[in-house]
Design brief:
The complex is a heterodimer of chains A (450) and B (309). Chain A has 450 residues and is an alpha/beta fold. Chain A has helices at residues 78-87, 106-113, 141-147, 162-175, 198-203, 211-226, 242-253, 264-268, 290-302, 317-320, 337-348, 353-359, 362-367; strands at 3-7, 10-13, 18-21, 23-27, 30-35, 47-50, 55-58, 60-65, 90-95, 122-125, 127-128, 151-153, 178-181, 194-195, 207-208, 234-236, 258-262, 307-308, 384-394, 413-423, 426-430. In chain A, strand 9 (90-95), helix 2 and strand 10 (122-125) form a beta-alpha-beta unit. Chain B has two domains: 5-119 and 288-305, Rossmann fold (3-Layer(aba) Sandwich), CATH 3.40.50.1370; 124-278, Aspartate/ornithine carbamoyltransferase (Rossmann fold). Classes of the chains: A alpha/beta (450), B alpha/beta (309).
Chain lengths: 450, 309
């Protein structure tokens, strides 16, 4: 494996408390050395990236993506989805199990991580909590975990039965897996395609009440409270309502292991962005009211939100060119998360750069216990994003590495342009040669961290 | 319904002019122009009146309905629209069960699309013909109209507001001419947030109070096909919201009684009221043909000037 040095840049590694000019040496897929500028001794044949004027940060970690494989390769493949990840600065992505078939077995879990998938970023499968995500029979969590699953969820088929959810939380806690819930009481959202409110009324669309989210979060927190002794971990996916966030905040004050993520579209957009039935503004949970959007920003700034996750949900163009209520939910997000977070959280809302990056790397990695990810401490994985923090650029969906182009952020101005993304020591994205495709090796199973 | 008051005024003036025009002259206005009627839902009034309107301007029309077409085989709205365009359609009149379908069809075909009712969203030509009916009775001889023309007029829209595209188009259009719109119905069919749809809209749950304040009462059908599992006690509904001869005589003896049809006699309205002297139901239908002549003409002659009817 090649040796790679990144020199002349400004290293920012929130989890290690580093925010200074540093050179960094990557060797055998790990961070080998960090040195003051110019102090690095380069081994023979080392490749050097000149990061003068650029930021060097831990590769980003997205704990909520849909890579569509197995089974829906026409929307996205693990190769194209992780190529988009690399272009967006992500080196670790956690993939949801709503594939075809549903990822509810160790075989599928392993298949997704196989080097034959030609992934450009490390894929961490999240397995289904119940068989075929039907909310009835629990899967074998120990077996899934040893196959590489990092959490369990039934994602878009939230577990409504109290007894099943209680069992899921307890069983996952026994093997040390997190439970991720897409909080939606689907009994309250039948036939609905956007947020319930004045806009849905005006557009003649059936609406999803905010309570459909917050009620289920509150129910799950009640179950977690009952299971307090088991140290069960509940993670609330794509939180979108003020009420759900308030419930998470309250749970945390009570010392419960409840975490949450927010997607960029939920801290930037509101239901008004549906406009005249723009299907690229249709996702689940839907874009909410301005008050909910403001609550997401507040939660990010005050720290109750643990991670920014994209809910990257690629769909084929023809699937979105239909009547709004028939269009599938979801938008892509891997290539826009960093640029939107820097422009809005950092520049507009004055969040320190380190904290923004932490929400996109160290915190999500810690949340799912991804060891050696989201940090550039010596010995951790050589996952690095090198970006120009001052570069403003315009995102063009047509240029996306993803197979899909379904994004409401087409034409938006981004701040911070990725120059290189390095995944386990390999340059998987190079803005200067962005057509080149590079993929990484088999997962480093069994290799202990130095 | 995004027409300005000026556009509405021009359309109304044009409606009257076309209505009074010599049929043989009128016949040449859109001579041999091709208009497709694309209907995904059944319709008697709207479809026939659009067809008669287009034909009386000399246009050739063709009807494609969801049954008896490739739509049954799964062809998308986009592909159906592109097919009609390739067949030479210069405009499409669309009735569809999904809200927003007209916007989608227009975006995909780049043809003028006339919305003949989309899901629960809007039915703009119905609102225009309702306006013409209201003006004929309450402001006879007024032309052109402006933002004060209906000042002092209260129009109640009663019944299944939630599922009604007619209600939405009317509640957006009438206040633009100065009218006050009262929405009346049970909570299940009339959510509180309906009052936020636009200016000049208020909710009055008490039917008799609404009737008492109204110069025009617009009764709506309960849309069984859109209730989506909602259970309604129809006997209770009739007790609270049926427009009976007694109520009308006692509370609004001079108001006009409107209904976009189809009416369910004995449910939202009694037969006596539907056929009574205050009823404008058939007049609304007649106005539909006239209004749609002006709308079709506008779509084909001024298609690129923006604004939709």
């Amino acid at each position: 494996m090649t040796v790679l040095a990144i020199r002349g840049g400004h290293l920012i590694d929130p989890s290690a408390g580093v925010d200074a000019p540093r050179d960094i040496l990557l060797k055998d897929g790990r961070v080998a050395e960090i040195a003051s500028p110019g102090k690095l001794k380069l081994p023979e044949g080392a490749e050097v990236l000149d990061a003068t004027g650029l930021m060097v940060a831990p590769g980003l970690v997205d704990i909520h993506v849909h890579l569509r494989e197995p089974g829906q390769g026409y929307k996205e493949t693990i190769a194209t989805g992780t190529a988009a990840a690399a272009a967006g600065g992500f080196t670790s992505v956690a993939a949801m199990p709503n594939t075809t078939p549903v990822n509810d077995t160790p075989d599928i879990t392993r298949w997704m991580q196989s080097p034959e998938r030609h992934a450009s970023a490390r894929v961490f499968p999240i397995a289904a909590a119940t068989r075929a995500s039907k909310g009835e029979v629990l899967n074998d969590y120990a077996a899934l975990k040893s196959a590489g699953a990092v959490a369990v969820t039934d994602d878009g088929h939230p577990i409504l039965k109290d007894s099943v959810m209680r069992e899921v939380l307890a069983a996952a806690a026994r093997v040390g897996l997190s439970v991720i819930q897409h909080a939606e009481d689907t009994r309250m959202t039948q036939g609905a395609s956007m947020n319930l409110g004045p806009v849905s009324f005006r557009l003649g669309l059936r609406g999803m009440p905010p309570e459909a989210e917050s009620n289920l979060v509150e129910r799950d927190i009640r179950l977690i409270t009952e299971l307090r002794e088991s140290r069960a971990h509940l993670h609330v996916a794509h939180t979108s309502t003020a009420a759900a966030l308030a419930a998470v905040r309250q749970a945390r004050r009570s010392g419960l292991r409840v975490t949450c993520e927010v997607a960029p579209h939920h801290f930037l957009l509101t239901e008004e962005h549906v406009g005249l039935y723009n299907t690229n503004a249709k996702m689940n949970p839907p874009l909410r009211s301005a008050a909910d959007r403001d609550a997401m920003i507040e939660g990010i700034l005050d720290g109750v939100v643990d991670a920014i996750a994209t809910d990257h949900a690629p769909h084929a163009t023809h699937e979105k060119e239909v009547e709004f209520e028939h269009a599938p939910n979801g938008i892509t997000g891997l290539e826009t998360a960093l640029g939107l977070s820097l422009r809005w959280l950092h520049r507009e809302w004055k969040m320190p750069l380190g904290r923004v990056l932490s929400l996109l790397s160290a915190q999500p990695a810690a949340l799912l216990n991804l060891k050696g990810r989201g940090t550039l401490a010596v010995g951790s994985f050589a996952d690095v994003v090198v970006f120009d923090p001052k570069a403003e650029w315009t995102y063009r969906a047509t240029e996306s590495k993803s197979k899909a182009k379904n994004t409401p952020f087409d034409g938006w101005t981004m701040l911070g342009k990725v120059r290189w993304t390095v995944s386990e020591g390999r340059v998987v994205y190079n803005a200067a040669q962005s057509e080149e495709r590079v993929w990484i090796d088999a997962p480093p199973v069994g290799r202990e961290l130095i | 319904m995004d027409l300005s008051v000026e556009s509405v005024s021009r359309l109304l003036a044009r409606t009257t002019a076309l209505e009074n025009e010599d049929p043989l002259v009128r016949d040449r206005i859109l001579a041999k122009r091709r208009i497709a009627l694309l209907f995904y839902e059944s319709s008697t009034r709207t479809r026939t009146s659009f067809e008669l309107a287009a034909k009386s301007l000399g246009a050739d029309t063709t009807l494609v309905s969801s049954l008896s077409s490739s739509i049954e085989k799964g062809e998308s709205l986009k592909d159906t629209g592109l097919t009609l365009r390739a067949l030479g359609a210069e405009a499409i009149i669309l009735r569809h069960s999904s809200s927003g379908a007209a916007w989608l069809l227009e975006a995909e075909t780049r043809l003028p699309v006339i919305n003949a009712g989309d899901g629960m969203h809007e039915h703009p030509t119905q609102a225009l013909l309702d306006l013409r009916t209201i003006l004929a009775h309450l402001r006879p001889g007024t032309a052109p109209v402006n933002a004060e023309t209906l000042a002092g007029v209260t129009v109640s829209i009663v019944g299944d507001i939630l599922h009604s595209r007619v209600a939405r188009s009317n509640m957006l259009l009438l206040p633009r001419l100065g009218a006050r719109v009262l929405l009346c119905g049970p909570k299940e069919l009339l959510p509180e947030l309906a009052a936020q749809a636009g200016p000049g809209i208020a909710i009055e749950r008490d039917f008799e109070a609404a009737v008492r304040q109204s110069q025009a009462i617009m009764m709506l059908r309960i849309q069984a096909e859109r209730l989506a599992g909602l259970q309604l006690d129809l006997e209770e509904y009739k007790t609270s919201y049926q427009l009976t001869g007694q109520r009308l005589a006692a509370l609004a003896p001079t108001a006009i009684v409107m209904h976009p049809g189809p009416i369910i006699r004995g449910l939202e309205i009694t037969a006596g009221v539907a056929d009574g002297v205050q009823s404008t139901i058939l007049e609304q239908i007649t106005n539909g043909v006239a209004i749609r002549m002006a709308v079709v003409e506008r779509a084909l002659l001024a298609a690129r000037q923006g604004g939709r009817a």
